């Protein structure tokens, strides 16, 4: 077999650790320009938002000092002219404030949408690269919670919270500087509660972090329960377990509610505490500043500006409670999403290309041992050879390791010991996608996607024409029943193909494999759940599509594999018999006993 070598660029993701915000910033480095533009718009908006108190102070100064006002010192002595200038400044300030508010909302929200989109897509792509064992240890609903709800939490924070934090910082810097310039004698009164407010905010953040991590964990469990129940609705109904399942959902939902309630009870206390500190500072400034005006130590205009500015400085801090609430929820979600992205890929692709037209289909298992996680070995030093173009069958009792061979051949799992070869090349050296493209799998548990019959047949062979699809369906003896459906090949099959019978789904799966036209075909209990008539139809189609290709048939019904070139009998992860149907009957062993039971012979 001609095999080409191509350079394999390492694609392993750098693992990140540390604070979730730093992890998010590391991820979002490609959005630096958009982030700086959004930050700039937020700062400019807040600068012009803080201007009106200064304009009020200037207006009071004009009224009180008239020809000696600040504007008059610029050369405009006429009172009317001063108010015209003041009016123009006010109009420009409001226009610019509105413009930058539009800009920061546009930039932050689009940034949230972009990061949400790309983060979800990256997380999903990475999830697809993980081995099957990862999914077996986690619920679908829990993973859906990460891809959907947790990613959405980040968007909510970027929509609102990021701007609030930047504007609070801008307010503190501008207003604090203004206070020390205009009235250094009373500035300390306005700034007095700041350390307590900021220190309390940081303390609240650290105190709330584990609470919100628990909230995210609980919502994952709840989503897992809901997803599992919706998938198993037929079983729930058939066993009249609606009340039982409703109680289990109630239990998970109540745990989520109580976890949220603990976090809410703490976050709700933030604003009342902050308000008390703000009230103290405002009252002191109001009285002390007023006394300084009376004593002539502070100008009336400056005092008017300070009274408004202190409110602009302190009252926005009350929103920090909601902001930190969004922030903590977003950081808890960030950890979950980043932990998923940082999950190492256990099964890596090889660096050898595998052109499908060059595959002969010779398969060899050499001394293979495999055990699922925390279980005893299901395959023990197993060796078997499958010649190219032959049809071999694997039979044995449930749990003997038959389907595990298929999973190892497709590299859904890696063997702990031993090697598996395709045309003499170690599977681990082959390009993983090329390997799977040359293998067609028809499983007992057929999965059909929500879509049309034609789309499901063409799944994996997306460039197929309508004629190709119909030809494949005819080979699989599926064309007759498809044409009897309401919209023929355009009939929607429903989620998981629930609108079709088991036999119809099997024939669509066979048509899918026919269209793929792989050099290796795997039939994993392909006829075990169908009636005799459907089985006969499937068998006729299988006889046609197995010609000139390596075929591995796993079956309980021995009648379906009696014509195989070689039959392997497995028990407890080991090969105990092999040979043709006639040879195994002559051995009068396990296979012979199974044949007599299934054929009704004594």
From TrEMBL:
- The protein's predominant localisation is membrane
Keywords attached to this entry: ATP-binding, Membrane, Nucleotide-binding, Transmembrane, Transmembrane helix
Domain ABC transmembrane type-1 positions: 36-329
Supply the SUPFAM superfamilies for this chain.
Answer: ABC transporter transmembrane region, P-loop containing nucleoside triphosphate hydrolases
In terms of Pfam families, this protein maps to: ABC_membrane, ABC_tran
Key word Membrane present: yes
List the transmembrane segments. 83-100, 165-188, 263-286, 298-317
Database matches in CDD domains? ABC_6TM_exporter_like
- Identify its membrane topology class: Multi-pass membrane protein
Q: Where in the cell is it found?
A: Cell membrane
> PROSITE patterns from the entry?
ABC_TM1F (PS50929), ABC_TRANSPORTER_1 (PS00211), ABC_TRANSPORTER_2 (PS50893)
UniProt cross-references to InterPro entries, sorted A to Z: AAA+_ATPase, ABC1_TM_dom, ABC1_TM_sf, ABC_transporter-like_ATP-bd, ABC_transporter-like_CS, P-loop_NTPase, Type_1_exporter
Per UniProt, residues of the ABC transporter domain are 363-597
Would you indicate the residue range of the signal peptide? none
GO molecular function per UniProt: ATP binding
Indicate what this protein is called per its UniProt record: ABC transporter ATP-binding protein
């Amino acid at each position: 077999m001609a095999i080409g070598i191509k350079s394999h660029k390492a694609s392993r993701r750098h693992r990140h650790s540390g604070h979730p915000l730093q992890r998010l910033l590391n991820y979002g480095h490609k959005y630096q320009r958009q982030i700086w533009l959004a930050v700039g718009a937020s700062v400019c908006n807040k600068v012009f938002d803080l201007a009106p108190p200064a304009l009020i102070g200037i207006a009071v100064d004009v009224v009180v000092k008239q020809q000696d006002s600040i504007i008059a010192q610029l050369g405009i002595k006429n009172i009317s002219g001063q108010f015209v200038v003041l009016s123009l400044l006010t109009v420009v300030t409001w226009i610019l404030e509105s413009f930058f508010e539009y800009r920061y909302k546009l930039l932050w929200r689009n940034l949230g949408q972009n990061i949400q989109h790309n983060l979800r897509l990256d997380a999903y792509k990475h999830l697809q690269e993980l081995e099957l064992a990862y999914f077996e240890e986690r619920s679908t609903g829990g993973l859906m919670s990460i891809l959907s709800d947790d990613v959405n939490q980040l968007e909510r924070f970027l929509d609102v919270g990021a701007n609030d934090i930047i504007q609070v910082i801008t307010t503190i810097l501008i207003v604090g500087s203004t206070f020390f310039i205009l009235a250094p004698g009373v500035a300390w009164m306005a700034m007095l509660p700041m350390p307590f407010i900021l220190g309390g905010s940081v303390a609240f953040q650290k105190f709330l972090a584990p609470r919100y991590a628990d909230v995210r964990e609980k919502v994952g469990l709840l989503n897992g329960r809901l997803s599992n129940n919706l998938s198993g609705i037929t079983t729930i109904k058939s066993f009249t377990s609606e009340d039982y399942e409703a109680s289990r959902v109630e239990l998970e939902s109540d745990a989520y509610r109580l976890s949220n309630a603990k976090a809410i009870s703490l976050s709700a206390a933030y604003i009342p505490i902050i308000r008390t500190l703000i009230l103290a500072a405002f009252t002191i400034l109001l009285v002390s500043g007023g006394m300084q005006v009376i004593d002539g130590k502070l100008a009336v205009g400056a005092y008017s500006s300070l009274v408004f500015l202190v409110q602009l400085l302190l009252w926005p801090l009350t929103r920090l409670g909601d902001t930190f609430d969004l922030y903590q929820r977003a950081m808890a979600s960030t950890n979950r999403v980043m932990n998923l992205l940082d999950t190492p890929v256990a099964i890596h692709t090889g660096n050898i290309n595998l052109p499908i037209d060059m595959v002969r289909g010779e398969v060899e298992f050499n001394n293979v041992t495999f055990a699922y996680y925390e279980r005893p070995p299901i395959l023990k030093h197993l060796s078997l050879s499958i010649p190219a173009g032959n049809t071999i069958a694997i039979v044995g009792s449930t749990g003997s390791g038959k389907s595990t061979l298929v999973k190892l051949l497709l590299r859904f799992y890696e063997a702990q010991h031993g090697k598996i070869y395709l045309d003499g090349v170690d599977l681990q050296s082959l390009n993983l996608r090329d390997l799977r493209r040359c293998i067609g799998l028809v499983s007992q548990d057929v999965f059909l996607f929500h879509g049309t019959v034609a789309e499901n047949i063409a799944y994996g062979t997306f460039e197929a024409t309508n004629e190709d699809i119909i030809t494949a369906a005819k080979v699989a003896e599926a064309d007759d029943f498809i044409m009897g459906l309401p919209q023929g090949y355009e009939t929607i099959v429903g989620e998981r193909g629930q609108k079709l019978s088991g036999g119809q789904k099997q024939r669509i799966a066979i048509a899918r494999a026919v269209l793929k036209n792989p050099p290796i075909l795997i039939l994993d209990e392909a006829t075990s759940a169908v009636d005799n008539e459907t089985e006969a139809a499937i068998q006729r189609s299988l006889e046609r599509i197995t010609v000139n290709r390596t075929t591995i048939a796993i079956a309980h019904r021995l009648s379906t594999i009696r014509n195989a070139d070689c039959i392997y009998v497995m028990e407890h992860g080991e090969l105990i018999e092999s040979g043709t149907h006639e040879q195994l009957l002559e051995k009068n062993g396990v296979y012979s006993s199974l044949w007599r039971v299934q054929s009704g012979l004594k």
